[in-house]
Queue: 2 jobs
Job 1
Amino acid sequence: MTEQEPRPGRRGPRRGTILVTAIVVVAIVAGLAIAMGGGLGTTTPTPTPGDAGDSPAFTDLPLVAVPPTAAAATPTVTVTVAPASGSGSASPSGVATVPADAGVRANRIRIARLGIDLKIVEGDGIDAPIGKVAHYPGSAWPGAGSNVYIYGHAREGMFLTLWKAREGDVVELDLVDGTTRTYVVDKVLPKVPWDAMKYVRPTKTEQLTLQTSTSYHPTSPRFIVIAHPAP
């Protein structure tokens, strides 16, 4: 009996299978990296809010430059509060309101130092619009002598730079009657509990309250800036 010689190319298919499997694994890993927001060979810096020093921890950012197709995954800016007790009308979330005809409606907000220049629309108190900011329903308008509450997403081109607000910043609201109301920031609160209802309630004197998010999570702290009418 003669010994059979090995057939040429007998191990070729096995090597080809290993090569194909390796390519598939690399492709899957690359796909997961991109899906998680990293990409190949790049890193995305994690933004930190403001100059206020008490910065919350971030686990699922960036909130910057979210593609339009990913809008559904954008964190909502919510103003969730417990029902307010006492008399008077209430907004959908139970916050006492000022008369609807009090004050003058604002249609634009500008903070020159922060590069903010956005249209103001009437909000629902839950979701923030894309490319605009919202007026919290039931809160005051300029001239009504109470709390004017404006909220928006912490996204590039919106309220992201609000994280850099500081005392003395000038905020201008353009009103529908053609006039401008000017406010000066006197308080920056970088880590307000998500359910702190006192910030959305009416105030005894006029103030402007601005709110944005600090994370994707609905119960993450809110970033709040408070301003009062310029002297």
Job 2
Amino acid sequence: MKNTSVSALSAAGMMLLSMSGATHSATGDDELWSELKGGGKVVLMRHAPVERGADRGNPLVRDPSCKGERNLSSQGELDAEEVGRRFREHGVPVKEVLHSPFCRTTETAKRAFGTATAAEYLSLLEILSTDEAAQQTERLNRTIGSYAGEGNLILVTHEPNINSVSFETVRHLDFVVLDPAGETEFDELGVIRFAGPE
């Protein structure tokens, strides 16, 4: 696996990938929660806040032991549990939860939703070569566009991955609500911000 940064992707190429699946419509939080309660949507969520500082792990390192990675902070752990509580409070049916194999996304998914499964195509784009990043983004577009479950599909991943397919800028635990439209196509209904409006 090459360690080429996703920034090496051409601006035109990333824009094409980003715009290939999504169309955008702005919707308020109440409407978005209502859409999620009806099921059949895909949630693309950024992981919870992580520990900061030079001795707090490397954000680009993937380490199954979690010792070399940058992991969730104590507040991040609490925030992940809170976002799960909000889903339950709003009566949102969850069909499946998938997450990047990194420790911070794994812990976010499990603290928020309990049961969750690792998916390689949600792994951090910044550790991939240009070709690998493009293939992974294509897989993400297809997963979103082709989803047809009755409940909602939750995808917990990283900021660059969300930026590759969405119009929205996301902070920790913000999530984009997407409405599948078949194959690699989907409508972007809006974003629910964990901490409220900026």
